[in-house]
Amino acid sequence: MEKPDELALRLRQVFLDGKWITNTNYKELLEDVDWDMANKKVADLNTLLALTFHINYYLAGVLNVLKGGELEIRDKFSYDFQHIDNAAKWESLKSEMNSNAAEFISKVEKMSESELDGPFIVEKYGTYRRNIEGIIEHSYYHLGQMVVKETSFLTLDAGS
Fold first, then answer.
1. How far apart are CA 128 and CA 151, in angstroms?
2. pTM assigned to the model
3. pLDDT in tens, the chain (160 residues)
4. CA dihedral (147, 136, 53, 110) positive or negative
5. DSSP assigned state of 14
6. Listed residue (47, 102, 42, 34) closest to 79, CA to CA
7. Cβ atoms within 10 A of the Cβ of 132, count?
8. Any residues with CB less than 8 A from the CB of 62 and at least 6 apart, and which?
């Protein structure tokens, strides 16, 4: 079982400053993505905006629980976002995700082993540890999609 600092390291790697498996992280990958590219559709894939919103939705929702709040998120709303039509709104979403990630990591680092192994809200949702691991795994899954999508943009642009 991973300790709080090990889980925090994995979170840091996927969100802010690591280069594990995908050789990038959300902050680095999205840094140079402008709002036009974030909204660009490739085939039937989710846009970078949709994936960013989706990951931040879960990150913010579980962070709220780590801060002592209720679990207010629902899977059916995890892609419900408004179209971003300007650079300021896109930059705000990226900044919000980076901020949520930093705070999430800080909360995890401060957890005890017994807190990690305690029930997440109610027993049917598993433990805090399992939910934090779920955030990590879910985030890597979508980061991989984003890497593929960004690579598709580069390939499409080169072929134009």
1. 35
2. 0.91
3. 679 999 999 999 999 998 766 689 999 999 999 999 999 988 888 999 999 999 999 999 999 999 999 999 999 999 998 888 899 999 999 999 999 999 999 999 999 999 999 999 999 999 999 999 999 999 999 998 898 877 766 555 545 4
4. negative
5. I
6. 47
7. 24
8. 71, 73, 104, 131, 132, 135
| Residue 94 structure tokens | 């990226």
Torsion of CA 34, 39, 44, 50, to 10 degrees: 90
User: What is the residue whose two structure tokens read 């642009």?
Assistant: 157
Closest by CA to 3, choosing from 112, 119, 135, 118, is 112
Are the C-beta atoms of 38 and 83 separated by less than 8 Å? no
Residue type (1 letter), 16: L
Which of 95, 129, 125 is CA-nearest to residue 112? 129
Residues 27, 98: contact at Cβ < 8 Å?
yes
